């Protein structure tokens, strides 16, 4: 039986609760050397791409900046363009918001990255209806939530028209004069829609892979339809149990099939290794408590309760107060992923009671993203089984330690996946699209 090839991306921490800032081995979140180390390690492990998230505003809690945000987050396209010079095969994927940018400018930046990297650029398209974040931009948080994907879909259509405005033969060599000639209509575009009306000439010739690879995260009905109908080449999945992941996988593929599409499905994942399962589990407990401190646990739960929980003991029971979803946002700039706070809190209370969890224990249980714990062989077995059973097509691998945490995975797990034929031993193609087995949409 032919084995599915596992797609691997590496996600470098940044502004989040999963990075262990206090570890003596932790490096800078903004020094270029950190990005170089992580990207080159991923390339050594034959990963498909290196992925950077986006942070457009410093988050606030009750009007004060989050402690985690003091390190900031640099612009992803700028960082990835620099990394293009120190890598050869690794895809370079930037998260960029379609709500607060303009198609011509962003399409030009991504096309430039694609050229400079030899066809390795990718765009994780995200949206926002957050007026807090929007305050940093000219139009502010002007979009209603239901309009986010309307704009994103049209934004992507404009970008693709721009990328396709040059044909491969638009520049031809004139042997007589020894010069290169550009065909008269090269780069011409004219788009008129409800969101954008743009026309002119695109300055960047067609890139080595035709178009940057498009990725997207979205599990709402609107997000799934956008993913299926003509949006992304790959989708980030939030599901980590095999049954839930398989259901999401089937749903996306069934929605996409009428369009002749089969987007790749990629959940995020972390790992903890040990010489024995018991050692890995103990190490996981230590890392989890370093990731989510008592104060951090209070803040994470405040995103759902929408109220100050600093007066509740992290090592005591869950707060005995109800959430206040209709009050002004207590946490600003963090995505709200729980649409029904009352139902979420009821579910969490049941989990805490059944497991005798403290407030902090519950936060670790809910917010920890470490799914693969064990010896290198056990982790390789579980990763491979998840993909071969259509839970996903691969994973975005993160680590609690920046930037060297990925080294352990590359050195100990990757060779085992390669031995069983589930992961390449070398890059087959010259572009990100080639290595992912994708055609231009």
TrEMBL record:
The keyword Protein biosynthesis does not apply. Residues 24-388 form the Luciferase-like domain. It holds the Pfam family Bac_luciferase. GO terms for molecular function: monooxygenase activity. The keyword Oxidoreductase applies. NCBIfam families: FMN_nitrolo. Belongs to the NtaA/SnaA/DszA monooxygenase family. This is Nitrilotriacetate monooxygenase component A. It comes from Actinoplanes couchii.
